[in-house]
Specification:
By secondary structure, the chain is of the alpha+beta class. It has one domain (37-148). The N and C termini lie far apart (88 Å). The strands form two sheets. It has a three-stranded antiparallel beta sheet. The radius of gyration is 25 Å and the shape is elongated. Helices cover 38% and strands 13% of the residues. It contains one helix and five strands. The chain has one helix spanning 2-59; strands at 102-106, 112-117, 129-131, 134-136, 146-148.
Length: 153
Amino acid sequence: MRSRVHGYGLVAVLVLVALTSAALSVAAQSWADAARREKEQQLLRIGTLYVQALERYRRSSPGTDKRLPQELEELLMDSRFVGTVRHMRRLYPDPVGATGRWGVVRGEDGRILGVRSLSEDAPLIMGAVRRPGLLLQPAQRYSDWKFVVDSEQ
């Protein structure tokens, strides 16, 4: 009689462990999705910062020849002026890329038009992304989103 009671206790503990494991796996997936969603929002925010910095660089160009930089580092210290002019505080890493490095989008003249992620992961946002001063078309991969300045100006 006593061995039967222990057998049911063991089965009850195994069922409890299985239910706890299932609940934790659901919670872990939810946390992973939330972290991925947060990184995607950071990508959009930082990409927008690069576009704004590139626009400031071009707008502040002396004279009538409004040019974009040759290298991203020029956004940190604009040497075209006597005083210190910074269009960005630092070069922010790509939040969704494995290396943190950005791909650079260049114009026909070799100057930087914008940046793009190097990540081949699929974005969570499936449609177009509209932000002030930014429009990204629907993409299959993060690398398809190009954060570029308006070339019409």
